[in-house]
Amino acid sequence: MKKILCILVILLASGTVALFAGGQQDSGLIKVGIINNPPSESGYRAANVADFEKVFTKENGYEVSTFYSLKNDEQLNAASQFITDQVDYILLSAAATDGWDSVLSNAKEAGIKVFLFDRMINADPSLYEAAVVSDMANQGDTAVSWLKAQNLPEYNVIHIQGAMGSDAQIGRTNALEAKFKAGTMNKVVQQTATWDEAEAKKIVESVINSGEDFNVIYAENDGMAKGAVAALDEAGITHGVDGEVVVMGFDCNKWALRELLAGNWNYDGQCSPFQAAVIDKMIKKIEAGGTIDTKKVISEEKGFDAETITQDDIDTYGLGE
């Protein structure tokens, strides 16, 4: 009897160990924490979020947790939680460029690899594995060079900025700010609408009501340009090709490019939201024992002019529907 009891105890003990081990077994999936701005931010962001949702799936070998916020402190807290959760990788599109050194150092100490996407940050490159991003400074330079080439008699600019401190805002602002400082363009107003269409409309309405002269609206995303144009329409001010006001946006939503094709807007700067597949390949290479040779991958982008854009451009480069 004792022998039987002994065998039962051993079997139960073995079973307990097996059950415990089974509960702790690695699922075989790569654990990824994605930190991004919310899809409601803009058409660009909706496309960016959809791109990551398409690539980072269970079927493709990933266990994914995602956090969305426009606030840098909330993103920092999310990153700290991902470190606590012991993810394998953190994928980050930062709300602001500064403040990431400490949390990324903690990730590195924990053996967690970080990939930046969409936007750069001000941090030592040793703290992240690679960055797959847009060149926001080039976007600004391209747009402002196009504007200067229009040879307007004067440049009185309403400058509507994105979320202050973000890589996109800084890059798209700096080129124009240089013209303001040089005195070759006049800053009528420079104010953030934090990517919001309604806020942009209010900014332009305020300038119209003040009676100040302006002939350029430089909005740092399509949504804000749309809000600005709504204010112009309500005031009976013409815009676009042969209009009183030059309208410029960024991101290349299809609906925005259609405004160019119709001659209602003048310029739209491209910002590619498609970084997920590149990061996926890099992660799979690391998981296979390889190393990443390229620290920074920059998306190829350009600007579109109402005078030259085609339907084929819209079909090829436009985001959304």
Poorly predicted ranges? 1-25
Mean pLDDT over the full residue set: 92
- The CATH topology of the largest domain is Rossmann fold
- In this structure, how is the largest beta sheet organized? 6 strands, parallel
CATH superfamily of the largest domain: Response regulator
What report would you give on this structure?
The chain folds into two domains: 30-134 and 273-290, Response regulator (Rossmann fold, 3-Layer(aba) Sandwich), CATH 3.40.50; 136-271 and 304-317, 3-Layer(aba) Sandwich (Rossmann fold). The protein is elongated and about 65 Å long. Helices cover 44% and strands 19% of the residues. It is of the alpha/beta class and 321 residues long. The protein starts with a helix and ends with a helix. The chain contains eleven helices and twelve strands. It has helices at residues 2-24, 43-55, 72-84, 101-109, 136-148, 167-182, 197-210, 222-235, 254-261, 276-287, 311-317, and strands at 30-36, 62-68, 89-92, 113-118, 130-133, 156-161, 186-192, 216-219, 246-251, 267-270, 296-298, 303-305.
